[in-house]
Amino acid sequence: MHHIDVRIEKDVYAANDRLAAENSAHLKEHGVRAFDLLGAIGSGKTSLIERMVPLLAGRGLAAGAIAGDVYGDDDFTRIAALGVPAVNANTGTECHLDAHLVEHAIDHLPLDKIDVLFIENVGNMVCPTDFALGAEKRVVVVSSTEGDDVVNKHPMMFRGCSIGVINKVDLAPLVGCNMDRMEADMRRYNPEMKIFRTNMKTGEGVEDVLDAILK
Q1: Fewer Cβ within 10 Å of end Cβ, the chain: N or C?
Q2: How far is it, in rounded angstroms, from Cα 195 to Cα 137?
Q3: Is the whole model's pTM more than 0.85, yes or no?
């Protein structure tokens, strides 16, 4: 029975990877660059999108978004208020987006009017790591208020992402967070990771994150 469980798990991942590759090809056909945003609830994923959309517009690039949530449309509402094409993707009982859900969401977007697509995953530091969606890069956002041991507790999340964002730098002194430790842990798990510190209230650091995403 144990071997059957393992085989089923492998089949699920393989099927998801095939769909993710199809999503990637579909987006590239339309000239869309897609990026995953991962992180816990409240880390600042939606705020990062809110900050980057006008920066993209200033560079002549149109943004779109897929907002992933277990339930509700809070993040979707915030993103839609920016005036960009957006789709709400509820996962129901699942704690992550998968390539199939993203495929359906893409079908509801005007791809020919989008240059950069942000896929905001469900707020979770574990489940999304195993499910590719078809994006070009993965960005993980953590905040000082999650504690400076948050990176060390979720090594797989950081191994699977190419850009790391430490958000809420202004609150770090108030909650006793050592951001140097967070950064050191990120480099230990992923020496190639590009790491940035941000403050979404002021926009500090966001342009550097966007540069790294688009590079």
Answers
A1: N
A2: 14
A3: yes
CB 77 within 8 A of CB 183: no
Distances in Å between the Cα of 41 and the Cα atoms of 23, 120, 174, 187, 211 are: 26, 11, 20, 23, 24
Domains and CATH numbers, the chain: 2-214 (3.40.50.300)
Distance CA 130, CA 159 (A): 11
Which among 54, 50, 51 has a CA at the least distance from the CA of 67?
Answer: 50
* pLDDT (tens digit per residue) in 147-202: 999 999 999 999 999 999 999 999 999 999 999 999 999 999 999 999 999 999 99
Segment holding 167, helix H or strand E: strand 163-167
Q: How far is Cα 83 from Cα 11, in angstroms, rounded to an integer? A: 39
